Amino acid sequence: MTGRRPPRSTAHDLERYAGLFAQRTKVMKSSAMRDLMALTERAEVISLAGGLPDTSSFPPDTYAALMQRVADEACARALQYGPTEGFASAAHCIAEVMQAEGMTVDEGELLVTTGGQQVIDLVCKTLIDPGDVIVAEAPTYPGAVPTFCSYEADVVQIEMDADGMRIDELEETLDRLEREGRRPKFIYTIPSFQNPGGVTMSLPRRQRLVQVAHERELLVLEDNPYGLLRYEGEPLPTLYSMDGGEFVIYLGTFSKILSPGIRLGWAAAPRPVLQKMNLGKQAADLCSSSMTQLFVAEYFASGDWREYVDSLVGIYRGRRDAMLEALQTHFPREAAWTRPQGGLFIWATLPDYIDTTDLLARALDENVAFVPGRAAYLDGRGGSSMRLNFSGSDEAAIREGVRRIGTVVAEQVALYGTLTGAAPAGGGRDSLPADAAPHPDGLAEVLELPRRRPSSRRAESDR
Amino acid sequence: MSTVAVLQGGRSLERQVSLKSGARVEDALQRLGHTAVAIDAGSDLVARLTDAKPDAVFVALHGRDGEDGTIQELLEVLGLPYTGSGVAACIRCWDKVLTKHLLRGVGIPTPDFHAFSETAFRELGAAQALPAIESQLHFPLVVKPAAQGSALGIKFARTATDVPAAIVSAFSYDRKVLLERYVPGRDLAVSIVEQDASPMALPVVEALPEGRDFYDFEARYEIGRTRFVCPAELAAQTAERAQALAVEAYRALGCAGFARVDLMLHEDGELFVLEVNSVPGLTETSLLPQAADAAGIGFDQLVERILAMALARVP
Q1: Class of domain B113-181
Q2: Residue range A57-76, pLDDT digits in tens
């Protein structure tokens, strides 16, 4: 042996670089939860934790044929940089998807992005100075939390009920922020089949939210990854379609209707905002993948993309129903959960003496996983809730996974009963009609998405 | 120069931390001129050890399997010398209840406690004894799983109404829970490394949580959440007493090689030993490497010393 290979030591020695890290990295923390989540990736674990669409139903032949056509017709372009805003052919596909949800968009007001996640990042990059307020739902998309934190935003979360974000509470909060001299820059919402809540904002609330944005000149970031994945009920108009192009930034994505692996999403926004986002994107990655944009363009040109979405709707509807049924059978009477009309997630809430982060550790022993509710809050709430995904596992795995979670929950409920002298509980219960018909008076009677008392010391220290 | 298998990862809840410790140990071994073979402890562990034919095994596995004596037992069977404590000491450290009984037995102060298995509550009506326990120990209480390497599952109970939920949480991690009197005061750690076959206490580290009641799991391993002061700002007498107690605890439990002893310094000046970790963290933010550094022992030197002790134990 001649000579040792150079030591790669420094790559691991974090403390050597600690003094160089930016302030914002202090809020970008690893967490116990992330360490636990790393364990959910073991092959033997039934994971109801992820948010994975089922890509196994996409025909490999179709994939191969599309890639062959990209190679035959546009090889050099596919391998080349593209414009920051994206190819016109991709924009055309996006316009078609938006059309399918009742929106008309000027293709010049679109920015093709690297997944929908990049839109959240670019909106923050464009609007947020450290300390600026972002208003979000409670619970909110767990994947947005690290983005908000990395821009040092001050996130204020608004309760939801079966009709989505409570606009009355939103308005009270905006008044309070104004009195305190704090400036909210945008309101982040997933109106349809909210992640993780599984609820959908009613039409009157959508109308009122758009009005509020106009009255107060606030931007709304409408995150709509699942709009076309509706399993029952009538579609509702998007905020973007009601806004007239003034205060709504629309986030769309191909991830849930085609593939997350192609990493393509988009933003539609008022031009001045979009121009700033375009500059932000240039700085971030110059452009999104030419190859996958051309793939999407070929895919849309080759046939009816809606047929595949319809097939996904069929698959996911069956999985949602399997999960709802399993919850009914295996979760204790004290549990409550939402009944989503679409999307990928159910939000279940257990009695407040059960801490779902600890429960996850126990569930992992039984090889099943979910996302503990605290991941969806920035203030330590959510300790008794969990997000369950039904798109990424087949019906048999969903039934078995829910059964296993139900078993450990029942164990804890019974133990608590023993400890407090209360009668142990058993059996299923009726689920909450999370997506009940919209209430005529605009503000639905409050159906609190249950939450953990924020008073617990552990809850505070867990964020 | 030796070939050293570095055991890391595994199935425990501390997998991620262990991977960090392991990576760092590997780097040090390579800088020292050894051949390091990283092994993620899984179902192929024995096969991989047999293939690697290491001169010694560096156990950088935290939590279940790595700290509870399981891996050590296996390495004994395979006849491979390994770092750190042997099977019996690992078992004594891993079970905090056993640790506390042993410490109390030799007169080392540890906070008052009671411990129960799940069966005691489920089948023997131990819940009816909770009021008596609570009046003996006083509030606030700390409720924790008897065996769990990190701070996961550790809860404070301020009043009697907090106790049942805290017990339920602790049982998520283990079949036995410990209810312990809370010691208000300062959170100290004394790391021990043997020198010439005798335990040497390193400078005391103090963990100062930033604006928090209790330094939690996250803070232990990430920069910026908890401030560590090493050496801790203590009166010389107090520091010496903490170090002496740590060495006593280390001996009482029969540890070998290295370990970390966690203590509380009560507001009134009294010291208590909480627990002993037989495979303490070796990450950038872990306490033992920081303490070694304060004593002028660099990380590479520390690793070399721990390895040398393992090699010296070859039958």
Answers
A1: alpha beta
A2: 999 999 999 999 999 999 99
pTM recorded for the entire structure? 0.87
For the question of residue B104 being annotated catalytic, the response is: no
CB contact under 8 A, B223 and A12: no
Say whether B300 is catalytic: no
Pull the structure tokens for residue A408: 């450990």
Which residues of chain A does B285 touch, with a Cβ-Cβ cutoff of 8 Å? Answer: 14-15
Q: If DSSP codes are grouped into helix, strand and coil, which group holds residue A229?
A: coil
Q: Do B30 and A36 touch (CB under 8 A)?
A: no
Measured between CB atoms, which of B27, B153, B158 is closest to A358? Answer: B153
Q: Quick check: helix, strand or coil at residue A186?
A: strand
Range scoring the smallest mean pLDDT among A98-107, A239-248, A407-416, B305-314: B305-314
Domain boundaries in chain B? Answer: 3-83, 92-109+184-312, 113-181
What CATH code is assigned to B92-109+184-312? Answer: 3.30.470.20
pLDDT at A14 over 60: no
Determine the Cα–Cα distance for residues A236 and A103; give it in Å rounded to an integer: 11
Domains annotated on chain A, with CATH: 22-57+308-461 (3.90.1150.10), 76-302 (3.40.640.10)
Mean pLDDT over A377-402 rounds to 94
Q: How far apart are CA B48 and CA A182, in angstroms?
A: 59
- Closest-CA residue of chain B to A9: B27
Strand extents, DSSP E, B46-148: 56-59, 113-117, 141-145
Which residue among B18, B21, B85, B150 is the active-site one? B150
Residue-wise pLDDT for A231-287, tens only, equals 999 999 999 999 988 999 999 999 999 999 999 999 999 999 999 999 999 999 999
Q: Which of B26, B55, B187, B262 is an active site residue?
A: B262
Nearest of A412, A414, A436, A401 to residue A330 by alpha carbon: A401
ipTM of the complex: 0.87
Report the residue from B31, B165, B217 with minimal CB separation from A7: B31
**Once rounded to an integer, what is the mean pLDDT over residues B68-85?**
96
Q: Is-contact B85 B259, C-beta < 8 A? A: yes
Nearest chain A alpha carbon to B159: A456
Pairwise CB contact (< 8 Å): B23 & A12 = yes
Q: What is the mean pLDDT of residues A381-388?
A: 94
**pLDDT of amino acid A23:** 76
CATH number of B3-83: 3.40.50.20
CB spacing of B121 vs A12 below 8 angstroms = no
Annotated active-site residue B215? The verdict is: no
C-alpha span between B181 and B216 (Å, rounded) = 18
What are B220-269's pLDDT values in tens digits? 434 445 678 889 999 999 999 999 999 999 999 999 999 999 999 999 99
Q: Which of B169, B177, B179 would best serve as a mutation to test chain A binding (most A beta carbons within 10 A)?
A: B169
Q: Residue B231, preceding bond cis, omega within 30 degrees?
A: yes
Name the DSSP letter for residue B203.
P
